[in-house]
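Async update (no meeting this week)

Hi team, since we skipped the sync, here's where things stand on the single-chain job. The sequence we agreed to prioritize is pasted below, unchanged from the tracker. I ran it this morning and attached the output directly underneath so nobody has to dig for it. Comments welcome in thread, and please keep replies under the output.
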Amino acid sequence: MDRKIVFTDLDGTLLNSDKQITTESESIIKAFIAQGHFFCFVTGRSLEDALPYYKQLGLNTICICNNGAAIYHPTDPFFDDIFFPLNNYIFFKLWESKPLQDSVDYFVIRTKHNTFVNKIPTEKKIKDRLTTLFHLDFDKVENVKERMLIHHSKKKRKSDILSIILILKPHINVQDIYYLIKSQTNNLLISHWSIDNRGFEHNGQVIIELNHNFANKLNALKFAQSYYDVLWSDTYVFGDGENDIAMLNKTDNSWAMRNSSNHALAVARNITHNDNNHNGVALILKELFMIK
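Output:
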């Protein structure tokens, strides 16, 4: 039997709006794994945020986190974790840029184990979006300012950074920000989307994410493919957002969720019958692999 491998995003894809994997999806996925296939997460979440779902499904596979900047194998103690961090020097070059400071509303950095912000949000829209994107619960964290705020001191800023996120002030020209970033460093992977999911063309508040050049979901996916010796013809991909586009565009066995962003819907070869609130991923697996 040719063993298949499935790569799936979590938020907006495998998880429903309540951030849960339904009982029906869990049953189908476990049946798929029982057939001898591989099932892998490829998510923007940190390992800590992905681990409860990993354990729920009883996975024993590579877990790709932080949009490909971190690769783990939580159940294999002999697997050496792989990271593609940004040097702190890059962070301080950007942090100390006055033109960039004047254009950025929120500055977020993600390390291996934590997420930090330059200030605690007060606007509900921003707070909700940061909570959704980075799984920060500002209302439940004790000593929030001490535990969540970015360390400005170069002596304290020790942890390697997996990604830098810039939430621009409203009506800032994205092209100008690209120029400012590239005037400081032209060796980063840059992506952007809108704070309200409407797209920057509607003048939504824009998020820019900066990563190591090798840190993306597609590169991490290729590593896992090689690790498990599975070909593209036996690789299946599910996603819904801008950070899923490269991997959705790579294989014919790709599905954008029915609730996906327009860009993901455009590049994926297929679209799920159901959205993430109605077991979209699992029902495709059930259809393809005749799971009862």
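Quick observations from my side:
The first strand starts at residue 5 and ends at 8.
The mean pLDDT is 87.
Reply here if anything looks off.
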